[in-house]
Write a structure and sequence with these properties.
alpha/beta, TIM Barrel, 8-stranded parallel β-barrel, binds 2-phosphoglycolic acid
């Protein structure tokens, strides 16, 4: 992290976990445990939990995010949720292009780009996820994959809008597997993302973007990962569902 240049952000990605009553209980445990955080703290929760989550975090330093959004303002898209709906509720962040959406729900770089632009246009802050598959890493094309995703996912996103965009580097092979990238691997790719952004925009803009690492980040490895200059935070799955573990990661980012 380099807090002199950019905001450190720890975000929980709850995925398809926690009913509304369970969400309330978890947030009631998280809120007091992270109240002194010296970093941004976010909980990205299932749509049906947003209402109780916003209520449980009102007036606190915990921000609420959604886990996806549609790109159209409204219309015949059964089962989808628009950015306007999220914005009106008071949601601030939205995860876009998570590898599980790419893997199981047909998300492509084109739809990630559409969702990202729609989120920004509505005044939401997108957390755009990128990351290579294991076999792509084994074939030594990690940089090609990441560069392609960054270029396509952020196509037509202005430098001004990039200031409200967070990038999450999540190697797919490290998600939910207990296999964390080493701090060196995380730093290498996060630095590469920043270089790519500097080429697409400019160095000043690239230096200000928060780039998170995600993939089996937990209370035991967070400090080392976050000690790297270009790792500005974490997108946390499993460990964000346990208040003490999540709070310990927030603490590591607050140093
Ligand atoms: P994990 O998930 O921490 O459970 O690996 C991270 C993510 O998918 O954002």
């Amino acid at each position: 992290m380099d807090k002199t240049k950019r905001k450190a952000i720890i975000a929980g990605n709850w995925k398809m976990n926690k009913t509304p009553s369970e969400a309330k209980e978890l947030l009631n445990a998280i809120v007091p445990a992270v109240k002194d955080a010296d970093c941004e703290v976010i909980a990205c929760v299932p749509y049906v939990d947003l209402s109780v989550a916003l209520e449980a975090t009102k007036g606190t330093n915990v921000k609420i995010g959604a886990e996806n959004c549609h790109w159209a303002e409204s219309g015949a898209f059964t089962g989808e949720i628009s950015t306007g709906m999220l914005k009106e509720m008071g949601v601030e962040y939205v995860v876009i292009g998570h590898s599980e959406r790419r893997q199981y729900f047909g998300e492509t770089d084109e739809t990630v780009n559409k969702r990202t632009k729609a989120a920004l246009a509505a005044g939401l802050k997108p957390i755009v996820c990128v990351g290579e598959l294991l076999w792509e890493r084994e074939c030594d094309i990690t940089e090609e994959v990441i560069s392609r995703q960054i270029k396509l996912d952020l196509f037509d996103v202005s430098a001004e809008d990039l200031k409200n965009t967070v990038i999450a580097y999540e190697p797919v092979w490290a998600i939910g597997t207990g296999k964390t990238a080493t701090a060196e691997q995380a730093e290498e790719v996060c630095a590469f993302i920043r270089e790519t952004l500097a080429k697409l925009y400019n160095k000043e803009v690239a230096d200000a973007v928060t780039i998170q690492y995600g993939g089996s980040m937990n209370d035991g490895n967070a400090e080392e990962l976050l000690s790297k200059t270009n790792v500005d935070g974490g997108l946390i799955g499993g460990a964000s569902l346990v208040a003490e573990k999540f709070a310990a990661i927030v603490k590591a980012a607050s140093k």
